[in-house]
User: Fold these one by one.
Assistant:
Number 1:
Amino acid sequence: MFPWKSCCRSLTAPVAATLLWMTLSPAAESQRVPAATLPFAPVLPQSVAPALMPLPASVERGTGTMRLDQNFKIVLEGYREARLDRAAARLQERIERATGIILLPQATGAQSTLTVRTTRASKPVQALDEDESYTLEVTSAGATLTAPNPLGVLRGMQTFLQLIHQDTQGFVLDAITVRDKPRFAWRGLMLDSSRHFQPMPQVLQQLDAMEMVKLNVFHWHLSDDQGFRVESHRYPKLQAQGSDGRFYTQEDIRKVVAYARDRGIRVIPEFDMPGHARSWFVGYPELAALPGPYNIVHHETVDDFEHPDPKQDGAMDPTKEQVYRFLDGFLGEMTALFPDQYFHIGGDECDGKQWDATPHVQDFMKAHGIKDDPALQAYFTGRLQKLVTRHHKIAIGWDEVLQPDTPKDVVIQSWRGQRSLFQAASRGNRSILSAGYYIDLNQPASQHYLVDPLVLPPFNPNDPTGKGVEVPTHLTPEQEASILGGEATEWTEYITPEILSNRVWPRTAAIAERLWSPQSNRDVADMYTRLGWVAHELRMQGIENGGLLQGMTERLAGTTGIDHLMVLAAMVQPPVDYTREVAGQAYDQLRPLTHLADSIPAESDTARHFAELAHAVATGTATAAQHVEARAWLTLWADNDAALAPMLDRTALTIELQEPSRNLARTAIIGLQALDRIEGHGKGNSENTAKQQQELETFDKLTPAALRNMAVAPVKELVAAKP
Ligand code: ACM
């Protein structure tokens, strides 16, 4: 465990005063404060600096501190390159943002130096097997960062930044020796730029944030049914007709690649084939199995529901030589644009409906003894993989590409289930894990954090990977080494540029830690405490994350007076598992994502904190102060609807909040009654409890506002608790 575990459930003075007032006031059916106002709201546990994330491989604390003031400077020694100068300048700028200190350009102070030593260049194109280790030593006399090559320097600089904190005299770093290296070589973030185009500033911002938490692969999903997002000179109708005019120019791509390299991040493009490929066919219908014309679609094409029209599925035609000639030319152009050694060919969710509906494809399958659609896809993948190899790249594909005769150098990216990793390992294919790291599912950081690439979860009958095949439950050290790491994935059906960073961060930092830090770090409470501070650090560097997006919320309300709306917002979360369509908001690229469900974070800190509090109360382990605090929260929510309701009939986007607001209030009132009963102020009666449980069930459903009422589960626990 990290020595500076820093959780304190402190209450600010006005809050403590309010709570005291409440404790002293006579017990009614439930104790209530007058219509709650925000200064009197209870506060959340605090995160304080320093907080390292990802946790280093080894940390030794020393004595004394290094003071950081305007004379701080970075001195580069040993091997030099322009990238290191830029990294030093970036670190200085980040320190200024983090501390507010204006660093002197010609600093002379002797006590405030970070000396950086490295001996040799890293490879011209960053490779998977490169050394990212570093040693950072901080003493009261100064700090030294040593690394074999610039990649370790980049990693160590972020640790240096995270070590900065304050004492009564200013900013300091405590004496420490950090010896660090990553557990996995492949630590990525996948961004889907097709479903919603993500402009350059948003893309670059992700790379900045990735650097801060030591992620090193930017996997860029650049084509899908809803848009082809890269400029091709050779096949210009791809972007001209296959997009709405939003695509990255080749100049943009070069800029992203260079920006990423500066930050020690590889860029791997993904062009999804043979399914998810409708956007290709708008300009080049001859690539498709069924004849055109095709147009861009703005909705989901591949889903659980059946499409009456097989053309919706947009599959390439694996039987035509012309298709492979086209792809050869395309790969020639794109492999030159993206220098990384790996190239992602997609391969997911091709359901074969187009192929089933195309007589010449059926004839081809018969003539070549290809027994079914997966076998036809395997044939396509085999041909494609040869082309990728011809262009000196290694192919990666989603786990569907793992078939009995998949070439051994194809890297498998697990998404449907983790068993595919173990299956790949047993077949001799290398792999990376994304199942469990789908941050677009709006799951809590804790859930992602505990997913480990090398630990097979209990068998899940819904996991289609490894079905009907032998999947080893234990891997040899060699097989373990074939699991290269993992990637968080941000699909963007419900993510517009204004929302992107708020959903990717800070949860992705927890995944970054899983992939960097020793496996034994599994303390969720400690992770959250540090994550809270990392969220702050990201905010200080301009990456708004994990909170209510104030401007968006004011816009939906049509007013800047959103205090009471914020009380509601803090106890609701967006749907998980793509269930937004249940609320009548199925993905449509043209549908504005301007609801409260969009401006809130994926995970509410308030909700998590209250759930812990309610659990303590329900299990009889809560302190008196926790009882008081639980009551204060419930009272705040019980009273909030009356204060909020008058403003909710003003806009379309607030009218839909009337029901969630009422539901939260009613949930809280039930919670207060349960608390009274637990604390002995009221009488329990099993009929009443059953009714309350039933009522709570109805609040668990998604309303058209597509919000989850996060008070329901903890209040259910209170209702079920024995007094
Ligand atoms: C995927 O999520 N279809 C790879």
Note: Residues 624-648 form the longest helix (25 residues).
Number 2:
Amino acid sequence: MKMGVLALQGDFSEHLAALRKLSVDAVEVRLPSDLINLDGIIIPGGESTVIGKLATEAELITPLQEFGKRHAIWGTCAGSIFLAKYTNKQQPLLHLIDIEIERNAFGRQIHSFQEMIDISSMADKKDLNTQFQAIFIRAPMISAVKGDVKPLAVLANGAIVAAQQGKILVTTFHPELTDDLRLHQYFLTLVNS
Ligand code: GLN
């Protein structure tokens, strides 16, 4: 298996480190040709407007959309916005998952918070601990899931923070900023499916 991490902006190094801890061959994606022979890619957190602008300049929008028709892609935080069909600001999007997502939905003063969430829908069936420490940094909110998109995790207030449609996975938090590799492992099962 060979994985890529979109390395235009944001915390791509943490995703590369997580994949390498799982002994997965992982490379940075900056150009359309970097997608050749990859089995799946991760789009990191950062600033979705910047990721969209740099992806447009690198002529990566169409190649990423084509890649996502056949392969697994996981977006964390800004990456989840970039993968969405619709957001509340005008910016380049990949439209690969049928969700509406609201940027910076948790207010200006509370830019960052953590909450334990239940990931039993994504955890290994043998794993008895289904709690996961979810870190939200100026996070977006998934405001609508449509079609066959499956919500996978919610906050105590009911807000959806993880969703999946086929091989496209989004989480509005940052598993790459913890030492817990279970969501990276879950994503690798999608890559292999
Ligand atoms: N607020 C950022 C955006 O709108 C996302 C923040 C993040 O990725 N931590 O793109």
Note: The chain has one domain: 2-191.
